[in-house]
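Comment thread on ticket #2218

A.B. wrote:
> Attaching the input chain for the structure job we discussed in standup.
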Amino acid sequence: MKPESLFASAAINIGLAMVVLTLFSVLRKQPPNAFIYFARCLSQHHHVHLDRSFTLLRFIPSFSWITRAFRVSEDEIIDTTGLDAVVIIRLFKFGIKFFVPCSVLGLVILLPVNYYTSQDVPSENSHSMDSYTISNISRGSDRLWVHFTCLWLISVYGLYLLYKEYNDILLLRTQQIRKFRHRPDQFTVLVREIPLCDDHKARGCCVDHFFSKHYQDTYQSYQMLYHLKDFEDLLKQAKSLATTIEDVKKRSVTRKRNRESLHFGEFREDSAKPVLHEEKLQELCHKICQIRGKNMLREKEFPVAFVTFKSRCAAALAAQSQQHSNPLLWITEMAPEPRDVLWENLLIPCRYLLLHKIGVYIAASLFTIFFAIPVTAVQGIAKFDNLKKWFPPAMAIELIPGLSSVVTGYLPSAILNGFIYVVPFGMLAMAKLAGCISRSKQEIKACNMFFYFLVGNVFFLSLLSGSLLDEIGKSVTHPKDFPGHLASAVSAQADFFMTYILTTGLSGFSLEILQSGLLIWDLVKSHTFGHGKKKEPYLYSLHYCRVIPMVSLAVLIGMIYAVVAPLLLPFLIVYFFLGYVVYINQIQNVYETVYETWGKYWPYVHHYILIAIVLMQITMIGLFGLKRKPAASFATIPLLLLTLMFNEYCKMRFLPTFDHCSIEESDELDKKSGLMETNFENAINAYCPPCLRPVNFPAPGSSSTQPLISSILV
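C.D. wrote:
> Ran it. Output below, let me know if you need it in another format.
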């Protein structure tokens, strides 16, 4: 890529970011937009101070939200949104802490070393971006030892930061568990594959007998799950009918006021409608009451139950123990948070979960292969010189001055980001098909799938397709040189990843905070079917499965190019600073919290960053070999082994605390807590299936149907 293309990409992204952020600074001050930009605050009935008077100040951009973001402490974020949100903020902070020193090291030491080939003479390719990368160093040069030293410094510093962050998140997790020690999931165990009781032909009595026998001092109660699809359908019909009756009565009252203008027959027909609906509602209520009877529910039992204990310690022991000699029976694990449960996935038998997972892997593989088409096409646009050879009509672009720079510099990364935007939603759908029992596990699985998708398709495929398009002719005529051409692709693709970081960071984060899609939807809604109706906040949850992999990919790209092409690092600093400010604002004002895992995302973030460090070291081993510096390659191998040993140590030191509940910690909390009875009573009620919970829908005033409706609500 020519420097002009990189400058064009930078100019477009910086200009777009400034325009969008200025527009946001004005729009957030307008009262009608509060339902978009302060959705979380309004949903929690917090007062949002906005100037409603029509003054000039409302239309002057104010960037106070940027300075406010840097004043928000982690304690405030934890109190308002939980520890999971802090994981995202910590990821941005990690990027800032890591890449600022790396940028200083790269720009002060590595960049001059790369640029001046020998005797302080600039490279012959001084007008090319390659002159600032390691590819400008001649083979066998002793200057490569400078890169080797920087590689060790960067790697050790990255491992130190990883250890520190892991330890800090673990301490915060422990504090949160102690703070929310009354949460129902600390007393509840999910039990699956419950056998059928031979005597009573039911599973509920089997659960009660089993846990009363083996946990007689600590077992409290259980809640079975049922096949209640027909019940849910009836309940929906009842709710719909009750709402219809209320609407008809309201219209009837309105027409009574104007009955002088109505014909008698028309009025009689209108007054008869509520009676007919009430008769239908009465029939539905009878059917619902019959289904909710104990005998009917027993026939619809499913081999899954939530079992509640009198202490956290007992629940932890039951969840982490094998209950039966056959490990496929009485499968136990700690229950997810009540609001986190995916009730429909609990009905999937465990024996079918393997088939679901295989299906998801096949679907994800096909999705990844299909996505290779646009990635290769994007690289074809980026490598415009080769595109002209294979597709001569493309030369027409050069007739317009500056257009080729825009096409090769900005367009490829913009198209790639457009395709990537829809991928997380597909991954989330596939993760749901995998049978995850909670939203958090579903999103963590989607997070993993999306990260590896990005590493495979966006990074490696961009690397390979770019190098192949650039060197395919030479590789065919000189096949022995193919490994060298392929390995040099890392430095050759540095300019493309610069434009990718610019587009993802400046344009991507700016559009994230603007919420342009919701603005357009709100405008259309306000002037069409929503006109005159009361507005509700546009409340959505934060998609961890989209943010964490995207930011982790930026960390991976930055680490791999930290030594190879240090000119990329300043762009990453801007990326992480802007992302930090944007997501502080979004977490505080926009997104709602739908579950809380107490930081379970961090082990995955740690794993992603460690993969980046390992890939950086492997890349440098290959590059030192290509530069005919085998001593540097061999001296890097101990660093790689040290990194892998560090990974194993972290798995032993930190990971078990995120996967399991400490018996010692649970026992201490049990002794300190004085509300034990209240705690497990709340746990019993919290895991009642949604369709069996009290339902509040508008009930008609008819005395004949009121008792039936009351029986449903009790």
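A.B. wrote:
> Thanks. Noting for the ticket: Strands lie at 116-118, 121-122, 188-192, 219-226, 301-309, 331-334.
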